[in-house]
Known about the structure:
The complex is a heterodimer of chains A (340) and B (159).
Chain A: H1 6-20, E1 100-102, E2 116-121, E3 127-134, E4 145-149, E5 152-159, E6 163-169, E7 173-180, H2 188-194, E8 197-199, E9 205-208, E10 214-219, E11 224-233, E12 236-245, E13 260-264, E14 267-274, E15 277-284, E16 287-293, H3 297-306, E17 335-338
Parallel strand pairs in A: 9-17
Antiparallel strand pairs in A: 1-11, 2-3, 2-10, 3-7, 4-5, 5-6, 6-7, 8-9, 11-12, 12-16, 13-14, 14-15, 15-16
Chain B: H1 6-9, H2 13-34, H3 37-53, H4 61-83, H5 86-89, H6 99-110, H7 113-123, H8 129-136, H9 140-158
Amino acid sequence: MSDTDPQLSDLLRRTLRAKAEQTPAVVGRRRSHSPQKARGVPLIAAAVVGIGVLGTVLVNTRDRPDAASDPTATPASAPDPSTTDAREIVSPPQDAPGLSVSPAPPGPLTPSSGSGSGVVVSPTGTLAVLQNDLGSFPPPPAPTESREVAGNDVTTWNEVGGIRVYSFTSGCSSIQLAAITSDEPWMGDMQTVLEQITVLANGAIALDLPSSWASYGGGRPGPRYQYEFTMTADGSPVTFQVTQTFDSDIGATVRTLDAEPTTINDAPALIYTNGALSTVVFEFDGDVVGLSASIDQETLSEVAASLGHHGMETSADVSIQRDDTSASPRCDTSVTIATP
Amino acid sequence: MEVVQFLTNSNDTEFESFYAANIDSAARLAHLATGTASVGLDIAQDAMIALQRRWDDLREPHAFLRRTVLNLCRSRQRRWSRERRWLASHQPDNSIGMPELDETWAVVHRLPRRQREVIILRFYEDLSIDQIAAAIDVPAGTVKSTLHRALATLKGALT
């Protein structure tokens, strides 16, 4: 990506360097002090949660009960306070009519999932979901077909609802690519994506997205915060569920195949309805926010557009351990999408 | 700000060399991220203490230092907004002395935290998108979109 305005780039560089030069020098001001002892802090183990890709699913609401430890996030030592983070929650305006929030903040963060995913959209508008999960998926229904694609032994089949699934393994994880499409097997948009997937070391996958495709990004979702609020919408009290996934792309949190692209305050978003419940998932200041309610999509979008940073925060006592030693994981379920 | 004793009593001359070579740059980064020079010094020292504890385990101490500095800046600013006392306890930062740069700095400082971090890492530290993604532990796509929004805001405010 290039910074397209050279004048602005130059102005920013001069400004930041001039400001930084005002910082007093530190070296030469050292004095002695008693050593500090590290405090013991309880470890937080991250659990792997799996979300089914077939059919329509809600963001982060269908977790497999057989969770296992996430080898990529378990720390080797007590959490270091210098790597912890208290985060600001997106919330409705304080003066929203009939507003009540439950539970009242601050509250706990849910650690990251071990599964990775990505969402891409073809030039013809087909939305495809790519996911990388520890372990294996349920056995596919018959009939299936198999062939080698880009060095991977791929199996494909049809699911109910016109869903075409392609599946292969990385050696330690299972990868699936799914979309609602009428294309014949091994043809069309999904074949194009399959041919651009590379399995990297330790199970990670990378997708070189063809030009004219759009991407909602991908990866493993960050820690998330969930709560509900009730407010008057369309003249009646409506309860909204909020899921804020920190430091993530939309593609890392959504695995819904019939979502439609939209925008919320000019930020990329996906919106879908499952029965009476509508959900919109959108980017907000580096995080992903999911908002669900039993309400029409237009009203839902209006409420989503009113959310912002209105002073709610997570607990400062909750830490999400970050593996800063970058120890090699047993299996890396990350999904990286490179856009042209 | 006092430096912890173990930094000078330690036989780890390699860490001491790293400290001497990088403490000032860490303080400058913290100054830019928080907007306050004195707080930047405190944060840089705290980050070095954390780094020293894990010195033997780190493969990329510069990346760890940068990430720790930014995390501490975020934590400190959260505490300020809750306590609402920092306005009374901190002196306002000095003007750069050039109206164009002061105005630009004011707009940068008003950006949302994540956008401000990305701008600083891109235009002060001159990091690539992938390096920024690693520094603040987010996907590269998130960095791109965050940078795009920040630049759009800056351009709108400064033109």
